[in-house]
Amino acid sequence: MSRLLSQIEDNPEYKVIFTDLFDTLIHRNVHPNYTLKLWGKFMIRELGLSIEVDQLFSIRAEALSFVSKQQNLKKVEVAYISVVEEVYKRLVNSDMISGIPLSRFENVFERADFVVETSVQFKNEALIADLRLLKDKGYPIYLISDFYLPESLIIQILDFNGFTDLFQQVFVSCSLGKSKEKGSIYPYVLDQTATDPKQAVMMGDNKGSDIHKAEKYGLHTIYLKHTKHKIRNRKNLFGSDLRAFNKVCREIEHNCEKSPHPFSEFVLHFYFFTERLYIKAKNAGVNNLFFLAREGLYLKRLFDAYQEMNRFTQEVKINTHYLKISRHSALQIALKPLQEEDFKAFKGSLGQMSISDFLNGLDMSEADIQHILVDLDGDSAEVLPEFFRSDIFNRLKENNTFISQYEKYRTNQKTAFAHYLENFGVDFEKEGVHLVDVGWGGTMQENLYKYWKKKIPVTGYYLGLKEVYNIQPGTKRYGLNFSIYPSRNHTDDVLMANGQLYEQLLAAPHGSTIGYTINNLVPDAVYFHEENEKQVFEKLVYPVQEYMFDQFKELFENLRPIDYEQDTAQKYLTDLALRSGILGKKKNAAFIDQLSRGFYQNVGQNKVGVAYSPNQIKESKLSLLVGFIKSPEKMFRYLVKIKPFMYAKGIYWMSWPVNLTYYYIRFNFWFKRKWLGKGLTN
Prior knowledge:
The chain is α/β, with parallel strands linked by helices. Among the domains are: about 1-240, HAD superfamily/HAD-like (Rossmann fold), CATH 3.40.50.1000; about 340-410, no CATH class; about 565-675, no CATH class. It has 29 helices and 14 strands. It has a 5-stranded parallel β-sheet with strand order 5-4-1-6-7, sandwiched between helices. A 5-stranded parallel β-sheet has the order 9-8-10-11-12. A two-stranded antiparallel ribbon has the order 2-3. The longest helix has 29 residues, at about 530-560. The radius of gyration is 32 Å and the shape is elongated. The protein starts with a helix and ends in a 7-residue tail after the last helix. This is HAD family hydrolase. Keywords: Hydrolase. Pfam families: Hydrolase. One of its GO terms (molecular function) is hydrolase activity. InterPro entries: HAD-like_sf, HAD_sf.
């Protein structure tokens, strides 16, 4: 029998039990005041406030003090709604909030308090078990709490922890305007429960409020010292958010390194992208996000999980959709009539193709293609560097069969795509379009903007931006992990170096979208899944994605009770990218080699496989060396290719000197921060 059970059962005078809640039945793994900082973090995130966490924390503290003095009440006696209204008033009058009604502010305020509390709590299982035994033996148990959250929220917290049924009734100071601290709540509770104080016992950890004040009104008391919990609360005054953040991220990274899944530590990149996307979308008031095929499928899965775990879905949930599209299909739906189309969208590598590549991409019958090729009398397989400026293309535009089939294909694609979009049930004209993809420039975004005749804004949220095309007010785009727009810094250079690997780790279980069709009045996308690519996904990528998803959820739970800035996350991601790219083990190089064999490009020549080769580098060795010494981050894109290249050549054992470059890069960054702090060395 426990000490508490013997204390109560051995005393025949004890008929009714009153108990405290916080630091008695429920404890926190953070300092009590830290919960209010976390509340500020969630308020800013959910309402899109442009304010620092510490400032919002101070505003709430000042608001509580003000109302407490104004109403001549102890702080724990102040009505919760009074604090909510005072905080709201201060934010409105300081132009820190606008366009958010009090009702919504109150809902988010309350939800943030609940989410924070339940994120940092753990139960005193032994004490709760003792009380349950006493309840089963017929002892009525009442909860008395001095707390700033109202009775309704306290009951929600009890429900969450699974022991609401333990209590006959719950009494909370801020809901009654009476407190244990002042002593005024005791006569009220005794009266409400028709309890003789000589037959009641009050148990708690606060010697003043739970013991002395209760004894003043004739109650018996049991003092629960809970020394180790009080020491923990004192210790939690110290420490560092940065240290806590790094510890969580390092643990996840360590898990991934020990696992049989190469590059699964990239879940950290995807986690912070998801978090930033959520914050950005909330700030912009976005209702619908369209995740673009194919990398968007896994990103959507992560975002949906983030929203679900975030537990704010009852407030304003962002709807997510999967848009089956590719660079190829996006180019097709944006095509204009032949006499108006300049094909400028097919720039760079997109314009490198043969006449056969182009005609096959327009879904023409084999008979029509052969008829056109005979008329043109040229080398149908010759890949032309600028196909749309070639003589054979100029002759193609004058071919009657092509003119007819081009227009038919163009209009069919537009019609099928229009019906496909209708199925989403989104008012695009009212909301605009908000796209999510891995990156890198916004080709699909720009073609969708053209599809809507530049009348509907199309906004892009990307893991990263590596190219700047023709960004307009109607095609704003954001690289959330890295971006060269509006300018780049050393972290952008590092994080963008391994763009191909992001794509490969975000691969989908289906093929590339090559167009749109309507079958039995149902519009849908048409896929082509290259067999090599399919096998690579099933054997290599899928297991990594499943493992990353589990680590993503663990990362969420462990980072939730930490208040950190995105700059902190960015520094960690930058160093992670350096370590992954330079210090990676042999299994990583082997993984890249296998992945690259199945990398399918769905535009232009539709190549399968991509190879790392030093012949692709146009600069001289001397200029590369000078560039590395001066700005090693700009050369990092070459460094990440060395080990995979050496593995493919069978000389991986010679790659160990590459590891030394990591330490030089770290030194270079430190030196520039320390001695070239004016930032004039770009």
